[in-house]
Amino acid sequence: MKRYITGMDSNALSKRDNIVRAIRFDRPEYIPMTFHINEACWGHYPAEFLEELMAEHSFLFPAAKRKQARPELEQQVPERVGRPHVDPWGCKWETAMDGIVGTVTEHPLADWGAFESFIMPDPAVTDGKVGVDWGEISSSIEKAKAAGEFTVGGLIHGHTFQRMVDLRGYEDLLFDMFDGHADLQRLIEMVERFNAEIVQRYVDLGVDMMCYAEDLGMQSGPMVSPEMFKKYIGPVYERLMEPAREAGCIIHMHSDGCVRELVDELVRDGVEAVNIQDLVNGIDWIRDNLGGRVCVDLDIDRQEVTVHGSPGDIEKLIREEVTKLGSPQGGLMLIYGLYPGVPRENVRALADAMEKYAFHFSG
């Protein structure tokens, strides 16, 4: 198995081909695993610990070296304590921890009267969160393609429903939907118009996969009723997915929280991979409702076992998820997002278990 980790086997599938096989139930050589270190972790854990973690887990971090520059800090991160910032949509954000998204404290369309003078940001220069250079993005994607890498495009996290929540406020938006407010459709059309241009730009660049990430769930149910989602949000998703689907891109959907009531709307025609959380939705429920139907890109628990359990509990959790949701045919990927508060021994146990069980079905 070490041959896959080091990449020394010339007969092994490329990482790109293995991901495609996993998503399309075409017998991948291993289960794709992603271990993401949130930027906030660099202010919580000693840098040496994180650098050693990456260097010692070459399967999860193939490009990592000891004493490397912090990869999560290479991007411009606007979330800083005591430094509110206004995004390109005019939403004012504040956070309690560097690197954590925080919350909108001023909604630019809290008063519908502001809509008449509101100007949509330009998708030619921003993704809705930070400025973007499409020339650089194009060059980066071309280089990745030339290297045989898996290329991904996507809308910013929280692209439609959450974007409207940011602009209007959560309660006001729900009342708008319930009341069928006259300006609501104009708002939906504006947000969709912005997103549609982002989608088309990535489609034109020929990415392998398009991601549509939006948190729709709470701890025990969705943030919006299935009826309102189907009426106002689902049709937008369908239109935003259409250009990517027609171009042959893999369609990847994501939502945190309990989304069991929305799954049939999320896993619509053409969606090949869905990223949802494990314990809040239930491992058995995911198996019974999504197993074999779509590739499950499973979001590993960040609330209970990984924070409060033992290293043994963590290995047991990963083993259960792999054995219940995986198969030699594929249809499973796992992702873990590390945030401050997880004991160091548990962080290592997670990385160890993910590397171990990635090869559970390998010959």
TrEMBL record:
Query: Which key words tag this protein in UniProt?
Result: Methyltransferase, Transferase
Would the keyword Methyltransferase turn up in this protein's UniProt record? yes
Q: Name one GO biological process term.
A: porphyrin-containing compound biosynthetic process
Q: Which residues form the Uroporphyrinogen decarboxylase (URO-D) domain?
A: 146-357
Whether Methyltransferase counts among this entry's keywords is yes
Organism's domain of life? Bacteria
A Pfam family the protein falls into: URO-D
Q: Which GO terms describe its molecular function?
A: methyltransferase activity; uroporphyrinogen decarboxylase activity
Q: What is this protein called?
A: Methylcobalamin:coenzyme M methyltransferase
